[in-house]
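Troubleshooting: if your tokenizer reports a length mismatch, compare your output against this known-good record of 315 residues.
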Amino acid sequence: MVKVFIDPGHGGIDSGSSGNGLLEKNVTLQLALAVRKYLGEYKDVSFKMSRTTNKTVTLQQRTNAANSWSADFFLSIHINAGGGTGFESYIYSGLSNSGETGKKRNIIHDMVHKANRMIDRGKKQANFHVLRETKMAAVLTENGFIDTKKDANKMKENEWIDRVARAHAEGIAEIYKLKKETSTGSSADTGKYTLRASTPGYYTAKDAKNKTNRKTTVPKGVYFIFNRSDGMINVTGQKGTPGSWINPEKGSTSSSTTFKVGDRVKIKQNAKKYATGETIPARVKNRLYMIQQVDAKRVLLKEIYSWVNKSDVTK
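Known-good structure output:
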């Protein structure tokens, strides 16, 4: 099992760079969450993130978490600033570009550059904390300049976020020769599945079968089947988008989600926790937000870049 630690740069009180109506901390989180989603399509990989919401995390906390978990690979996602344009990637300055980490970085760099449609600023080295203090292979990507309009305009497009995130995931898959979960048909059209009772949801089919690395709880309802593998199924509330892997032994009666991308919703006043476990502050409740993604149990709210349980939002 390959262990990948995904690090969205900045967060919380540290906004990172800004420009053209964007904050780096928000764009990096969007990219990182999408990288995690696409890695979930592969076998024999597990992953953790330094943050999954707009949360303050120190550099030391990030590297300590990756080291204590004994990750195999550390990916730090950033957005550049300073009036330039284009994409670049980094490994620790004490390493050789021709070494093992350099070779892994080259694979990710080439795939992401091909996908992001930006100028290639090169494969570089730097004495960044997250590259220096991690015990595993570590790569940091700078995905365009937030203060350059033509780069920032790309960052505002969901399609660009999706494409660049998938390229990061495919780069990691190429490095470790990961194989996709075997599907019994088109990933976007493998039928529907009705859950008669809530059931645990997992990142991979293997996790679902072994009951390890639980991701969420999938509530009863009607879902699209995104994929099938090893007797497990990946169910999703949004057709064509991967959701959570479940053991299909549990079933149920209908009731499909009424939430979709683009809906405007409010977080209920009595909501306590984000879907990722952090406390929901009072200041974000009872305000309108746009749904950016829909998962089996959760919705991603665009303005605060946070996953919220469907039961905690209302139209």
